[in-house]
Design a protein that fits this description.
By secondary structure, the chain is mainly alpha-helical. The protein has one domain (2-142). Helix content is 85%, strand content 6%. The protein has five helices and two strands. Helix 1 runs antiparallel to helix 3 (56-87), helix 1 (2-26) runs antiparallel to helix 5 and helix 3 packs antiparallel against helix 4. The longest helix has 32 residues, at 56-87.
Length: 143
Amino acid sequence: MKSTLLLRIASVLSFIHVALHTAGGMFGGPKSAEQVAAREAVQSHRFEIFGVNRSYWDFYFGFGLVASITLLLLSVLLWQLASLAKANPDKARPFVATLLVAFIAMAVISKIYFFAPPFVMEIVIAILIAVAFFFLQKAVISA
């Protein structure tokens, strides 16, 4: 039961993360003159790649949307995994461990390349998943 609740909380936090990333990061506008200039620079310089004309903005925005979809997918998987953890803790453990590694890796990337809010959110989610894994381990041993 404890792992189910922890995984559901992690799922909700992941959903909040995707909502903030998408609304603020992808569809939020620049806040300063420097940000406006940087955005205009990456939007205005276009080049051909693999037969299509693109800009660095296209890559930035496209990868940002891919990140949003991925975070949404992770949120749904965490929610579904909570049900599996309740029904069959032993089968859930490898999936929980995989998501733990993924969120730790995302936190490291956020710390290096981004800023505090996504890093903190990913660390909190990773901690919840780690504790859920610990409770799943105890459930498997006691079964």
